[in-house]
Design brief:
single chain, 417 residues, alpha+beta, five-stranded mixed beta sheet, four-stranded antiparallel beta sheet, 10 helices, disordered N terminus
Length: 417
């Protein structure tokens, strides 16, 4: 999946669309200025924000991916999957023609290494919880980030949580309970395949094989997990995975299987992506290389400056917040106001926040009136639900103004998501 940002609108396409605002640049070069600044990290096991995610989407692949701008999930590094009758075992058949940017062949062990790595790194500010919450036995690690060590990590690796079968090119992921959005969760960037060779070659030199390392929290010491858990031929050498610890080199460098490679990150100035002309997906009928060969992202913090750059033809694409849009676009009529600058709107998967009260009972105060805990049998009907308070104990005690005060309504919403 390629992700571009056009005047605040997200592009999601399997063929990168280009917004041409100027003509002086080569056709295969794009300058992109963006208000979100630079990434926190470009390690899919750690990064958990928009700017880094935009780079990860270009550089890495996951088992499945979204098809263009739709919500349909289609195979990427996997070719298909089967699910056990109880829904607790997912078996993915993997592609056998994929290589990482460093030339390492992709296989089931590489995919297992990548997922295990995110889970064992277990960064409390990172995205690992997205898959830890359902992968067998991994939930306990979420709250154990200060104490997780090699002994505990290897005890988990001994289980059948994630099983690689290189001979048959299959990866099995066992989960603790039926999780409806399992495939969507695995499609988040934390599920990206990372080259084990690249991580190993750039492992933290402060953590020699079998050496000690002090946690950032200062609470514990640990070693690298041995490489034998994924590649037995390398037994006795460190894997580059330290429980509870980030890899500082991987925070700034990438090695994936995607259509672009991160070739430069100058802090506070820009990041540069170069097209991967050996992209494995070119083997698929109908797939073409992205039009853009070099993708520059220059950091320009001020929205007014980005607008001036657009008007002065000093950039191809810019993120423009709604407050500055009237200079370029009439939202009421849908009309562009500046020659040569085009605003296009595309659907987005972005959701700023959605939360519900997960308690079985609810207390709240409204208009100075204390409402009783709702009954477990409460319902919501927008046409006839009244405000039932302490004087009506046989009714639902749900608010007519707020359907989320009704337990059944909250359960229905939770089921829908």
């Amino acid at each position: 999946m390629f992700v571009g940002i056009l005047l605040g609108i997200f592009l999601l396409s399997t063929n990168l669309a280009v917004f041409e605002a100027v003509g002086k640049l080569p056709n295969d070069v794009l300058i992109h200025e963006d208000t979100t600044g630079e990434p926190d990290s470009v390690d899919p096991a750690y990064d958990y924000e928009t700017r880094g995610g935009a780079i990860l989407e270009q550089v890495y692949n996951t088992l499945y991916d979204y098809e263009g701008a739709s919500t349909d999930l289609v195979p990427s590094l996997a070719t298909g999957y089967t699910i056990s009758a109880d829904g607790l075992s997912w078996v993915f058949t993997l592609r056998d023609d994929v290589t990482f940017h460093d030339g390492t062949p992709f296989n089931a062990s590489c995919m297992k290494y990548s997922l295990d790595r995110a889970i064992i790194m277990n960064d409390y500010d990172g995205p690992a919880w997205i898959i830890q919450q359902f992968i067998k036995g991994a939930t306990d690690m979420i709250m154990d980030y200060e104490n997780l060590n090699v002994t505990e990590a290897e005890a988990w690796l001994e289980t059948d949580a994630i099983v690689a079968d290189d001979a048959n090119n299959k990866l099995t992921i066992n989960i603790d309970y039926n999780y409806i959005p399992f495939l969507a969760a695995m499609t988040y960037t934390v599920g990206s395949a990372v080259s084990p060779t690249f991580v190993y070659n750039h492992r933290d030199t402060n953590v020699p094989d079998g050496g000690d390392y002090t946690f950032d929290t200062g609470n514990n010491d640990t070693d690298q997990v041995d490489m034998e858990w994924w590649f037995p031929a390398k037994a006795g050498t460190g894997s580059g995975i330290v429980p509870g610890k980030q890899n500082e080199y991987m925070n700034k460098h990438t090695c994936g299987t995607g259509p672009y490679m991160l070739t430069e990150w100058t802090a506070g100035e820009r990041t540069v992506l170069e097209r991967n002309d050996n992209w494995w997906e070119l083997q698929n009928a109908g797939t073409e290389l992205p039009t853009i060969k070099t993708f520059y992202h220059n950091i320009v913090a001020e929205a007014a400056t980005r607008v001036l750059d657009l008007k002065g033809k000093d950039t191809d694409v810019a993120y423009v917040p709604e407050t500055n849009m009237p200079e370029l676009y009439d939202l009421a009529t849908g009309t562009d106001l500046v020659d040569g600058i085009v605003t296009e709107m595309f659907p987005s998967f972005s959701l700023m926040y959605f939360g519900t009260n997960l308690n079985d009972t609810l207390e709240y105060e409204e208009a100075g009136e204390l409402w009783t805990k709702e009954a477990a049998t409460s319902t919501y009907n927008g046409t006839d639900l009244g405000k039932y308070g302490p004087l009506n104990p046989d009714n639902s005690n749900a608010s007519a103004d707020n359907p989320f005060t009704a337990l059944k309504f909250r359960q229905a919403v939770a089921y829908a998501f």
